[in-house]
Amino acid sequence: MTKPNLIADEPGDIRALIRALRAREAVLRARILAARPNAPLEGADWVVTLRDSTSRRIDAAALPPAIQADPRYWREVRTRTVVARPAAQTTARTGAEADVVVVE
């Protein structure tokens, strides 16, 4: 009998934990926004404030076709990706979905 490769399990486990934490954060964020506080919310360890900001982004699809097609305006970025997918028995047991961890 071979031992399972635990290093293969850990990225998927971490991503599942991150998903759960992000989901909880989204619930808390929605509650804070719904409360519409006019002053900072102070807890025992953290202070939460609301900040509005605006940013500008280029809409590549709105650029003239000549610029979209011109390679001088584009650059290629290569990344190496570690893909963690649940093993068949994990999918059957937990319903976990494939996830990706990007390492640059």
Quaternary state of the chains? single chain
Topology as a string of helices (H) and strands (E): HEEHEHE
By helix and strand content, what is the structural category? alpha+beta
Estimate the global geometry from the Cα principal axes: flat
Distance between the termini: 35 Å
Number of helices: 3
β-strand percent reads 5-15%
For the biggest sheet, the summary is:
2 strands, antiparallel
- Spans of at least 5 consecutive residues whose pLDDT stays below 50 are 100-104
Strand order of the largest sheet: 1-2
- Structural Rg: 22 Å
Whole-number mean pLDDT? 83
Helix residue percentage: 40-55%
DSSP strand count: 4
Topology, pairings included?
Layout: H1 6-35, E1 41-42, E2 47-48, H2 65-69, E3 80-84, H3 88-94, E4 99-103
Antiparallel strand pairs: 1-2, 3-4
